[in-house]
Amino acid sequence: MADGAEYAAPRSGAPVSYDIPSSGTTVDGALLIGLIGAFVLIGGAIMLGDSIRSFLDFPSVLIVLLGTFAVTMVSFSVGEVLGVVPLLLRTVFPPSRNVQRACERALNLAEIARRNGILALDHVLPQLAGEPFLQRAIAMAVDGGAPERVETVLTTEIEATSERLTRAANVLRRAAEVAPAMGLIGTLIGLVQMLANLKDPNAIGPAMAVALLTTFYGAVMAYMVFAPVAAKVDRNAADERQIQQIYMVAASSIARQENPRQLEVLLNTVLPPSQRLDYYS
């Protein structure tokens, strides 16, 4: 127990909840609205033209999509490239990441440990199944791990998680670099085929349109999908790191059996003034 620490009761009218719900998942509305809106704008511009069919070419799609996948895989492993697929789903449907809610959850756990003893948290662990990192952190504190050991292990896990997400974002950024190049390659292939048929002037126009489609597909995939989603993955990784650091601080404080008031002061340093916790008078 921290030296000289005295029990601080929750301020009147704001009892600390003993129910520790999981964060759950949500839908990234900004990502969906942005992607759908951009494709709707392009689709609308195409539909205002004379022919929608002129923008459809299956060989061009194969060159851009499969070519981008193959060239990107040269820079990474197969597992890293394929691992981006579940990450995309997690990006669209991410876990709820609210810093204030995370601080409240951490303070609630500290209050339970302060009132009923650290072993009381053992009964709360099943409620933390939706937060695996927090569950492991609290389990280490409950098992009597030294605070320094808890911080070392959790810091290592935080760094490993951040590295995995950064690597996935790098895969998407690499795909964003490769897609326009594959589009250009497809265009050059189409131009060569077009020049081979110069004896037929009527075929030059349609052949040129098909040749340019691969560049169009490559630009759309790179600048409307891969690059923006990579930036979103980076942002989500930063949010995940902050939440995990909050949980690490809480687990370390609980392991030290510190007064929850000290934890509240520390957690308030990461919150904006309008969202700071005020559980103790």
From TrEMBL:
One of its GO terms (biological process) is chemotaxis. Keywords: Cell membrane, Cell projection, Cilium, Flagellar rotation, Flagellum, Membrane, Transmembrane, Transmembrane helix, Transport. It holds the Pfam family MotA_ExbB. Its main location: membrane. InterPro entries: Flag_MotA_CS, MotA-like, MotA_ExbB_proton_chnl. Residues 131-241 form the MotA/TolQ/ExbB proton channel domain. The keyword Transmembrane applies. It is a multi-pass membrane protein. It is found in: Cell membrane. GO terms for cellular component: plasma membrane. It comes from the Bacteria. The chain crosses the membrane at residues 30-49, 61-89, 175-196, 208-231. PANTHER family: CHEMOTAXIS PROTEIN MOTA, MOTILITY PROTEIN A. Belongs to the MotA family. This is Flagellar motor protein MotA. It comes from Thalassobaculum fulvum.
